Amino acid sequence: SHGLTQPPSVSVSLGQTASITCSGDKLEDKYACWYQQKPGQSPLLVLYEDTKRPSGIPERFSGSKSGNTATLTISGTQAMDEADYYCQAWDNRGIFGGGTTLTVL
Amino acid sequence: QVHLVQSGAEVKKPGASVKVSCEASGYTLTDYYMHWVRQAPGQGLEWMGWINPDSGGTKYAQKFQGWVTMTRDTSINTAHMELRRLKSDDTAVYFCARGGGSYLLGYYMDVWGKGTTVIVSS
């Protein structure tokens, strides 16, 4: 079983806001990061240390955390954002969530 | 520009070993940890371990201890991951990924290779 829990799927209408959650017992004390993975591609880091965006990641990607739950928010979701999203944290080992498939309607 | 260039696909028989290479381009290998992550077909991401290319120190996920070895050759800016005693459920794409962050704050992976497909089949 995964130490981090994500919903298997999330749907969002084009241009609306998508939120993907990631829950874990120790997340309150640990930073979370998020990866986007499109079919046939490697993962791409979109957020790190809960809220920081790497260079080149659009501002519509943002992060937050409350207690043991981290949230990736995509504002003004575009068709190109359709992908699998994985959260990851560190607890003396790398831990990934099970992944969430984001569908843009 | 920073890239990680991985070796090509492999097909192995059960019980064999595989060694995957990851050449760092655009930066010095010893400046960042290197993580290895695998993804079985249709499945999620699984962290295997990291190597500190500067010291050669390693940390492996408990599941892989005793049958994975991560090494590096700093003269050619390349990291390697060897998995032994392969089974059919080791069929996966194996990624190398440059590590950011720190032990205290937690590591993230900011640059990924394109992945190496390993198929284990008799």
Q: Return the string of H and E elements of chain A.
A: EEEEEEEEE
Structural class of chain A: mainly beta
**How many strand units of chain B?**
11
Structural class of chain B: mainly beta
Using DSSP, what is the number of strands of chain A? 9
Low-confidence stretches of chain A: none
How would you sum up the global shape of chain B? globular
Q: Uncertain segments of chain B of ≥5 residues (pLDDT<50)?
A: none
Rg from alpha-carbon coordinates of chain B: 14 Å
Shape summary of chain A: globular
Quaternary class: heterodimer
The first-to-last residue Cα distance of chain B is 40 Å
Explained architecture:
The complex is a heterodimer of chains A (105) and B (122). Chain A is an all-beta fold and 105 residues long. Helix content of chain A is 0%, strand content 46%. In chain A, the strands form 2 sheets. In chain A, strands 1, 3, 4, 7, 8 and 9 form a 6-stranded mixed β-sheet that branches. In chain A, strand 5 and strand 6 form a beta hairpin. Chain B is an all-beta fold. Chain B is built from no helices and 11 strands. Chain B has strands spanning 3-6, 10-12, 18-25, 34-39, 45-51, 58-60, 68-73, 78-83, 92-102, 106-112, 116-120. In chain B, the strands form 2 sheets. In chain B, strands 2, 4, 5, 6, 9, 10 and 11 form a 7-stranded mixed β-sheet that branches. In chain B, a hairpin with a 6-residue loop joins strand 5 and strand 6. The mean pLDDT of chain B is 96. Classes of the chains: A mainly beta (105), B mainly beta (122).
